[in-house]
Design brief:
With 479 residues, the protein is mainly alpha-helical. The protein is globular and about 60 Å long.
Amino acid sequence: MTVEENKMDSVGQQPPPPQPDGFLGKVANYFDFAENRTNFRTETLAGVATFMTMAYILVVNPLILSDAIFLQESGDLFTELAVATAVSAAIGTLAMALLANYPFALAPGMGINAFFAYTVVLGLGIDWRVALACVFVEGLVFIALTLTDIRRHLITAIPSAIKAATTVGIGLFLALIGLKGNPEIGGAGLIVPNDVTFVSFGNIALPQTIMAIVGILLTAFFLARRIRGALLWGIVGTALLGWVFGIAPPPEGIVSLPAAPTHLFGAAFTGLAELTGGNAWDFIAVLFVFLFVDMFDTIGTLAGVGTQAGYIDENGELPKANKALSADAIATTTGAIMGTSSVTTFVESAAGVAEGGRTGFTALVVAALFVVSLIFTPIFAAIPGFATAPALLIVGVFMMASITTIRWQDITEALPAFLTIFFIPFGFSIAEGLALGLITYPLMKIFAGKPQDVPVVTWILAVIFVARFIFMAVRFGEI
């Protein structure tokens, strides 16, 4: 048993906890509580922890997409986008819970939403309805790839060293996301931009940054005292302190009635109808980028968080991978219909895994909370970034344990692993880090005279990644 397993799956060290009878017993049996050595309390706390670390998407995604989506009729654009975000996240996460029985949550992906808004709509001048149509088609392609078993083989094709490196890279990525937030809008501000050094340590005299440090210490105290739900209580405690001391604005209310996304729902079908020969090339080009980024972000997240949760078997495969990928494909398709950019598996799912979540009931709780958030949006929107920063940092600490499984004495394994670890956080993309790792892995094996150690599918992936870099450079003027 590794240190990581001992810390993050303590329930696994004990006999299976007693399971309830009646209806609750049937629910426990459906989600295999006994086999996963878990219970309702653990799974519920894990679900709440995951939701709290990703609730920011309810605010951030509407802010980003509203820059690109201009409604022709009157309407509350932000609220409509918030509803589309919450509903698409709930549907995708529910599909993950019921189909795959994994504790992974889904929501409109960060990064891909910015590409949708600023590159596709504003940069290329593609109508936002056509862009939504592109996301819809992407989801259909994903479903086809899943039914043909191609996406599952892509996960298997990732070498074990790259899988471990992806886990570590995601941990650093989460920590960076949590610590870099702008203190002027409630972020932690421990890592800030710097014109000379690119990034630097933040100003610890700022009240938001002080609160982030207090939150880290508070969460660490809960963990040291082995208090279950430590990450969740750290978030709640830090947010309450911020509200009490006036460092972050408290909720403006308790409940609010959601606005139906009447202007967004079904706009993807309108976009398909407006597709012409004149914009067909741009449609195909954007579709390719959506496919690539979403697919490998999802694969990287499933491989990384799946490794953290102990799901990856001795053959390097993720059991029920096709079911998990089917849930992701369904989420992207329904998200486009609702009126939002690609929905994908969130790396913040690692927070729930860190709390002991091991089954789809954790995801079920997250899905329910996204539905509840439609009414309690003022509360969730008021949780400042410095309150979730400690949880993301601690999850990063837990995920670092996988670094010990990489054979650092073998340069053919070490260099690709290091590039993966390095470029996931500093390239701010799981897909880019995974790309560089998978390109250099077969090259290093060739240099060492061991090309036979590289599976054929891994070679194919490397070629695809190289072709993608060339395509992006030619089509969009960037890598």
